[in-house]
């Protein structure tokens, strides 16, 4: 059916890019697909799609909704049905032309294909699939495509999208069922968990298949959570995150500090501090790569300190484990020490096989000494602040300030296709 669009293409693109910018679950890559004769684009495993603005949001994918006309009324969302905003839509062909035009001009390296829920979840999912298949087959587009799974869409449509997409995501949006009920009443928990589980199974099935077979969603699945729209604590968010990684085999959980875009008495009037989002990303890293559990980092009702990173905070609460001797501590103990990352822990373990390590050797290994010295001895030498938590906290806070670099000034700025110079008016 021909979609009637009274607005010009430029006007619609402007509306639809604005409508898409608060979704952060599109970064990263993980696919590997080389170029082919007669096709355009290629995917490289290290991540063709990585690019972040100062506030941490991904911009290098073409991120635009197919339509911002929504049947749902999620209170926090600019596209909610009851919000009085201009509405627009693209046809699959228009979308494909846009992607290929931008790709050829080197503006993008991939696509984030998403949509508000027009008519029904299945109708919208089918629209995304039509576009996806058109891009892959008619336009022979082999670059990275991330497709949003629409909550409530039928499983056979999720399966079909997974045949062509590199990555898919179902946004969990809110950390608890109660919050979902309050702010996104049309979204039921199972509308989100069912497609997530299906995608997890696809990832699992892929792993059993021979490597030469084309993989479905080779870059896996991700999700996004809004932080601060509801009173849910960091501890609750982290528990949920841990469960998502464990039960749904997620590649990444993205956190998006709440930004007020519509007025509603059920929502906070101020944006969430971006430091909170940052602390959750740090904690997420600790869960995935440092062997921490969510309960070690925070009780369920707790929130992270905005002044100290979660690992330092944990170390101060566990001073009886420190200082550790750098020459004899286990790899796991090294990983749990503030200032020592995965690479440094590995380097320390390798280097100490050759000789006893001193603070000078650690400097050469590029260990972040201002932090680490508070928790280690090196060949018996100690340069810390004893076991006074306040003193350690004060020294750590100073270190964090020194190493934090340029701070975001609180302005929620995301790069737009319409920023001066971004597309030079060549649409
Ligand atoms: S379903 Fe909810 S979050 Fe998604 S576009 Fe519609 S109103 Fe926004």
Lay out the secondary structure.
Blueprint: H1 9-20, E1 61-65, H2 92-104, E2 110-114, H3 121-138, E3 144-148, H4 155-164, E4 167-169, H5 177-183, H6 189-208, E5 221-227, H7 234-248, E6 252-257, H8 274-289, H9 294-297, H10 310-317, E7 324-325, H11 331-335, H12 342-351, H13 359-364, H14 369-372, E8 376-378, E9 381-382, H15 389-403
Parallel strand pairs: 1-2, 2-3, 3-4, 4-5, 5-6, 7-8
Antiparallel strand pairs: 8-9
Helix pairs in contact: 2-3, 3-4, 4-6, 7-8, 10-15
The protein binds iron/sulfur cluster.
Describe this structure as you would to a colleague.
This protein is an alpha/beta fold and 427 residues long. The protein is built from 15 helices and nine strands. It has helices at 9-20, 92-104, 121-138, 155-164, 177-183, 189-208, 234-248, 274-289, 294-297, 310-317, 331-335, 342-351, 359-364, 369-372, 389-403; strands at 61-65, 110-114, 144-148, 167-169, 221-227, 252-257, 324-325, 376-378, 381-382. α2 crosses α3 (121-138), α3 (121-138) runs parallel beside α4 and α4 (155-164) crosses α6. The chain starts with 8 loop residues before the first helix and ends in a 24-residue tail after the last helix. Bound molecules: iron/sulfur cluster. Iron/sulfur cluster is lined by residues 70, 72, 74, 77, 79-80, 116-117, 184.
